[in-house]
Amino acid sequence: MQGVDPAWLPDGAFRPIGTRRTLIRGSGPLVDTVHGEVADACARFGGSVSREGSPEPYDLVLELTGPGDGEAFAFERGDGRTTVTASGGPGLLYGLFHVVRLGDTAFQGSHDREEHRPDVALRMLDHWDNVAVHPVMGQVERGYAGGSLFWEDGRARGELLGRVRAYGRLLAACGINAVAVNNVNVHETEARLLTDRIGEVAAIAAVLRPYGIRTHLSVTFAAPMVLGGLSTADPLDAGVRGWWARTTARVYGAIPDFGGYVVKADSEGQPGPFAYGRSHADGANMLAAALGPYGGTVHWRAFVYDHRQDWRDRTTDRARAAYDHFVPLDGQFAANAVLQVKHGPMDFQVREPLSPLIGAMPRTRLAVELQATQEYTGQQRHVCWLGPMWSEVLRFRPEESAAVGELARGGLVAVSNVGDDPFWTGHPLAQANLYTFGRLAWEPGADPGRILDEWIALTFGPRPAAELHAVLDGSWRTYEKYTAPLGVGWMVQPGHHYGPSVDGYEYSPWGTYHFADRDGVGVDRSVATGTGYAGQYAEQWAEVYESPDTCPDEVLLFFHHVSYNHVLRSGKTVIQHIYDTHFEGVAEVERAREVWASLAGLMDPARHARVAERYEEQLRSAREWRDQINSYFLRKSGVGDAHGRRIY
Ligand code: GCV
Question: Is 114 part of the annotated catalytic residue set?
């Protein structure tokens, strides 16, 4: 599309296809999409595409072999011909994008038959988009890429849905198959999307459908009252259940392949079943019952905690909350109710241990939620490629038998980082997070470095590959180095969460404390002397986290309050680690900025300039983080830097 960055689908990515003869066999809407893609490439590069005939004269054959909607495909090359077969339309589309990723190599030599299928069935993006501009949060809550892609001037974008089409295409090319189009904090205007404004949601769904993407909607638990005029939203009330059943029937009347509801209940002020003395299983199951006849799913979020706690109260530990609320409900959720759990116990900090809920509810379908939008990781002004963090999460084994990627039977979900910005993600390099999420959701055990290289090759071509890899690969660890140390988290400016404020959340009601004093820092979450949180893990991890001697350095302050002179497993003291990492982090940003500067001329100048400008801000901010954190801990501890560097 004109004026919009092609991201990982630039013209060149289709050249190897568009210069050849392609046969497409089969019918259906997604086969039409495949045909459209190839025909478009041929129109630009001179190849040809046919929908009839025998394979012999063709270089590429894309063939639908069945009537299903499966996502698997097979790829092979022999006798000078490349063949993709799939028994479902989505599979054929994913097969086409596999050829795009391979580029010319898809048409060279011979390739044994390979079968590809996603490891995770649901690969979803949640948009925290408001239809109207919210007075505090703006249009996209925690959005750092402009306004909403879906909503403008209080309505669905109408004729501008071309932008959504381009988005659907990019998502299909990295394997995403579901999108929730509005914020989980459902305000009044957005609540109405469920009823009288469902036509607008249907218009978006119609644009995403040809790319194999199902549309979901965030709804308010109070909808029967807010929209239906009922006096209660009690999930066991027959009138309430009837209202949801009728409303859901109308939703499916408008959107026959509607994916389902996303619900944030009893969380940060959103209404929920607690008001009626009901459990979250009661709430989720009511919606599951309404969705069930149509094959829909309710994604019920487990982000339930007390956000009005008294900081003086040392017995309440926010990290414990999701486990305490939900584990007793294991086995009570309906088959089409998915419990959507943030990957860490707190809230998308730069480093958290895995949420102990994951692995602790074997009789419940769990979806794991990641955050592509960089709320706590530099807000798309800093380069912070999250692939290594997500990969660590997905490969982690809460118990020996299975990794998180396998336990996420209900799907993998990321909070989207996209807006109406011409580069989609504000920071052009943040596109790598979106792409990586899709590819990891398809194959959670994949090497993130390989995905990064794939993204670089598609987006930039071969020239700056090594430099870009270097700049992005370590950027999450760099960000971690200059921000909150050793897993303690927070230390951000309250409200907007950008930039340092060591005590910003220390005396707040949000349950987000570091407890730094003159002797030490960190939260004692041990069973022996602390909040008991460490005991929520399966035995082998509970033991590891229980003692500061065995706890991994990177989460030490999450689990323990230790003295500044405590010697880490790395051999450094905590205080020296804080100083060293903060100096290193800034030096790494300085180097990355130079590498980026050296790439001018190798890419579109607008893209280069946008990133260069953001590196200036990243460096300024990283220095601010370094100096505030180091000065804070020098002043608290009175222990100087062993290397005598300047601390204020
Ligand atoms: C959509 C954090 C964010 C909120 C977000 C919430 C959630 O608290 O700061 O903006 O609300 O998480 O995940 O529901």
Answer: no
Distance 197 CA to ligand 1 centre (A): 25
Using one digit for the tens of pLDDT, what is the confidence trace for 334-377? 999 999 999 999 999 999 999 999 999 999 999 999 999 999 99
pTM: 0.98
85 and 149: one domain?
no
Taking Cα atoms as reference points, which of 482, 531, 490 lies closest to residue 514? 490
Residue with tokens 């022999």: 78
Contacts of 120 (CB under 8 A, 6+ apart): 405, 408, 411, 412, 441, 442, 444
Specify whether 81 is located in the same domain as 61.
Answer: yes
Whether residues 219 and 155 fall in one domain: yes
The structure tokens listed for 100 are: 């795009």
Q: Tell me the best of 125, 301, 347, 505 to mutate to test the pocket of ligand 1, counting ligand atoms within 8 Å of each CB and taking the most.
A: 347
Determine whether 375 is an active site residue.
yes
| pLDDT (tens digit per residue) in 208-218 | 999 999 999 99
pLDDT in the model for residue 4: 87
Q: Which phi and psi (to 5°) does residue 339 adopt?
A: -90, 115
Whose Cα sits closest to atom 13 in ligand 1? Answer: 303
Read off the CATH number of the domain in which 99 is found: 3.30.379.10
Q: Which of 127, 129, 142, when mutated, tests ligand 1's pocket best, judged by the most ligand atoms within 8 Å of its CB?
A: 142
* Domain extent for 586: 481-637
The alpha carbon of 125 and the centre of ligand 1 are apart by a number of angstroms equal to 15
Residues 233, 322, single domain; the answer is yes
